[in-house]
Amino acid sequence: MANIIMCSWGQMDGAQSNMGDIVIFESMVATIRRIDPQSRIVAFSSDPDGTRRQYGIQAFDVFTAGGATRFASELARADLVLLGGGELVQDRSSKAYLLFNLAPGLASSILRRPFVGYAIGVSGPEETSPAGRRLTRLVLNRAAAITVRDEPSKEYLARYGVQRPSIQLTADAAFQLGVTNDCTWMPGLEATGLDLSRPYAVFAVRSFGHRSGAILPGFVKRRLGLGIPAEAKAERKRLTHELARIVDHVADRHHLQILLLPAQQKSRVAFDDTDFCDQVAQATKQPERIRILRRPTSARCLIEYLRQATILVGVPLHSLILASIAHTPMLALCYASKGERFMNRIKMDRFAVDLYRSPMAPFPTNRIMALADELMRERTSLSAHIAKAHRELTQQADANEAMLRRLLDSNQ
User: Fold this and answer.
1) Most CB contacts within 10 A, which of 69, 101, 194, 340?
2) What is the 3-state secondary structure (H, E, C) of the chain?
3) What is the pLDDT, as a whole number, of residue 228?
4) What pLDDT, in 10s, does the model give residues 47-92?
5) Domains in the chain, start-ordered, CATH in brackets?
6) Crossing angle of the two packed helices 317-326 and 19-35, in degrees rounded to 10
7) pLDDT category, 18, cuts 50, 70, 90?
8) What is the pLDDT of residues 200-217, one digit of tens each?
């Protein structure tokens, strides 16, 4: 029986964790179980009991008084430590983000426990400071193996001086999730008030003014009782108004119902995307016609919600990835390079709008509306195109599992 530590954000806020982090977490747990059903998996969680009930794994809160001691104890007996998946290397959101992501790898190296970078994303110099690049080189050169989810990540690791483990291009861990029909997805959609006999569009929205290079991550600020910075509030207000205009356009022009999908459900430690959805809805011409998903749900249910949708307009990367798994045409509003990269990889880059390189520029509302109209006109052919890309990425993602299997077999 292998002892595996998952150093992931996937349960950092329990069931209310970030959508993308939950998707990756669920996929990684399922992958480990396929390889070794008897493995003992340990993860970080702000709600250890809830995580144990939901996933049948061990969990502890690393940010409590005994968290560091528990981590050291678990690390001493670990057969393998997993860093990732997802966006591992960047410090634009906060300087401490990268340190938190890489510290378990450094600790593993000191205690001579093997660790891997699992389907990780690596940001470029515009999103990773010189100090962050040096830290990346220091830690990841000690990894047993590294898989990356896109070609730029592989290129940036090489540029930052990561040379010792082989770096393999795969795909995001979400593509290993697998799709089943055992999810009772319909009650969750009905609970939003949607009329399931009529078409609807999904807007996966979030406020991203927090990616400002602050010292502390947003979730730490919330735990310490600190508020949203003034500059983030100003950006949030502007984004709310412009997104509401786009929502009204899609609803009116194409006679669609609208479902707002928070990237992160109402939470005690993270900036609340449910509140942001409420603000966007209230800023529309007819708030009463906007529906909001208000309760946590599984990754597989989210895929089904998107499969039933006509189109997605998405800010978070994993709303785009889940839409591709559902073969639903998507328009990406990219607040970081990772969204653009994914759209480039599936050859949907003409439907990707850059919102991060010039944050003070006028918001491209009219362009987004025009692209939404184009997406609607071409949605049948685009769905077939996305289905083909999904099949290819699923095959490439299998290399993540092969890497884990090889390392676990070598430890037995």
Assistant:
1) 101
2) CCEEEEECCCCCCHHHCCHHHHHHHHHHHHHHHHHCCCCEEEEECCCHHHHHHHHCCEEECCCCCCHHHHHHHHHHCCCEEEEEEEEEECCCCEHHHHHHHHHHHHHHHHCCCCEEEEEEEECCCCCCCHHHHHHHHHHHCCCCEEEECCHHHHHHHHHHCCCCCCEEECCCHHHHCCCCCCCCCHHHHHCCCCCCCCCEEEEEECCCCCCCCECCCHHHHHHCCCCCCHHHHHHHHHHHHHHHHHHHHHHHHHCCEEEEEECCCCCCCCCCHHHHHHHHHHHCCCHHHEEECCCCCCHHHHHHHHHHCCCEEECCHHHHHHHHHHCCCEEEEECCHHHHHHHHHCCCHHHEEECCCCCCCCCCHHHHHHHHHHHHHCHHHHHHHHHHHHHHHHHHHHHHHHHHHHHHHHHC
3) 58
4) 899 999 999 999 999 888 888 899 999 999 999 999 998 999 999 8
5) 3-177+393-411 (3.40.50.2000), 186-377 (3.40.50.2000)
6) 60
7) confident
8) 999 999 876 555 555 555
One-letter amino acid for residue 240 of the chain: T
Angle between helices 19-35 and 299-308 (to 10 degrees): 120
Q: What is the pLDDT of residue 269?
A: 47
Identify the bridge partners of residue 121 per DSSP, sorted by sequence position: 87
Quote the tokens at residue 44.
Answer: 């970080």
